[in-house]
Every structure is written in structure tokens, then in C-alpha cells.
Amino acid sequence: MKKIGIVAESLAHSLSPDIHNYWIKKNKLDVEYQSIEIKEKQLNQFFKKFVDDKNFLGFNITVPYKEKFFKICPNISDKGKDIGSINLIYKSKNKIFGENTDYIGFKKTYEKTIKSKINKVLVIGSGGAARAILKYLSDKGIYEIDIYSKSFKKRRAINKGFNINNYFIDSNHLISRKYNLIVNASTGGMTNHSKFNSQIINLVKSTDYLIDIVYNPIKTALIKEAIKAKISYSGGLTMLLEQAKPSFELWLPGNKAKISSYLYNKVKKKLND
Predict the structure, then answer these.
(1) What is the mean pLDDT of each run of 10 residues along the chain (273 residues)?
(2) Which residues are annotated as catalytic?
(3) pTM given for the model
(4) CATH number for the domain running over 103-236
(5) CA distance 19 to 15
(6) How far apart are CA 236 and CA 178, in angstroms?
(7) For the chain, what are the domain ranges?
(8) Can you tell me the distance from the alpha carbon of 211 to that of 187, in angstroms, rounded to the nearest whole number?
(9) 170, 262, 266, 269: which has the highest count of C-beta atoms within 10 A?
């Protein structure tokens, strides 16, 4: 049986199996979707087994391995190279390819959410998803971008790869700043992860738009603040579905991954249960 899947350190709250199994059923395919939890020291061994397994068509990558697999995968798309991170690996014509579909996922989310000109952006986070978002914002011609991240180690790589104004590791530096758009590209606010302090949450009151790529819970602390302040926002479900669609279609060419309102509500309901 052919198989596809997702690889991460922990997948306790992943909705990817629900999404891809829905498309597998819709396309009447005999394909198994696997959730694969592995430790960092196992990545190279896992990848070798994947290469040798003709039935294993590919997999998505999530926290914290997007940049790790970027270094392992032999053929990276131009988009992936520009971003410095991949979230998808697939096989085609006996070769292994790495791609970044977070970019298209964020692009679709941005287009559905933003209705006016954006000049100044705060991106929270500095991991693989943040890199895809920074690339899209740069492609849009938005260059007044600040980063807030607790990871000092990633500062050099982010500053080198993108046109960033400021890189803050202390939220006190953000108190007097104002942004048109705030994007949470971190795991902050996710179920069983760290919470944001009041300084970060209070920033939402003075912004025009919020995009929080966290989808579990549906209403994060940042989104609750946006609702209270009557600010336009988007949660992480849209990006999750939009990045999943090209993954499915690259693994299984000729099959369609339609993002219907039924699928959206089905996945949303699971989060609410």
C-alpha cells in the first residue's frame, strides 16, 4: 500500500491526518496516512529508510524539523532555498524533492484577511513558518518588519536572509511600538505551549490586522483580544488547509484536494469537541 504522512517531534494535536484522510477518501485512493513521531537523532536514519521505501511517497514536516530536513533533502525548490526551510518532501521521477508550502498557505491567508495597505509588521517567532512568512512579506514589498523571538541563536540567520528592521528578544522593547499587522508565527498560545505575556497581548489593541497561525485552540489569547478590540483577524486553520492542499497534490499527481466548507467545519468541529 502507498503511504504518505507527517513527521514531527510530537503530534498529539495534529489535524493533518483528518485533512488528508478526507481527501484520500474523496479520491477513492488506497493510501495510508501515517503520523510519525521521531527524535532529532533519528532523522538521518528515518530519511534513508524513506528513500529506499518505494511505497512511501512523501511527508509533511512540522515543528521543530523544518530547517533540519532542509539540510538533509538533496533537491530543494527555489522557493525553499530562498526561505531556508521546507515543510514538504515528495518523490518524483525517482528523485527526492523538498518544497515549502507554508508560503502559499500564508499567501492565501493574507489575501483573505488583509483589505488595506500594510506598512509595518511585527512577526512573532523565528522558526521555519516565520521564514516563509518573512519571504512572502518581502515579496509583497513590505520592508518595515520587526521580529520578536526568544531565540537569540536564530537572530543571525534571520537577519542574514531577510530585510528586517529590528530583532527583539525582550518584549519591553515593544511597548511603545505600533503595527498595521501582527503575525504570530510561533507556538506561543498553542495548547500545552507557552503563553504570551500581557505586553504582547496588549499590542493587538492598536493594530489593524492579526494573523495567528496557531489553530489549536481556535480562539487563542491573541484572537480573543482581536475580537474584543473589533480587529480583523485570521486563525491558523486557513493556513493549515492551504499548505496541505499542494502537499497532497504533489504526492498524488492527478488527484484533487478541494478545500470545501464541509472540510473546514469538520476540522474546526474536532477542535471544539
Answers:
(1) 97 92 98 97 98 98 94 97 96 97 98 96 94 94 91 74 82 90 94 85 96 95 97 96 98 97 95 78
(2) 66
(3) 0.94
(4) 3.40.50.720
(5) 6
(6) 23
(7) 2-100+238-272, 103-236
(8) 13
(9) 266
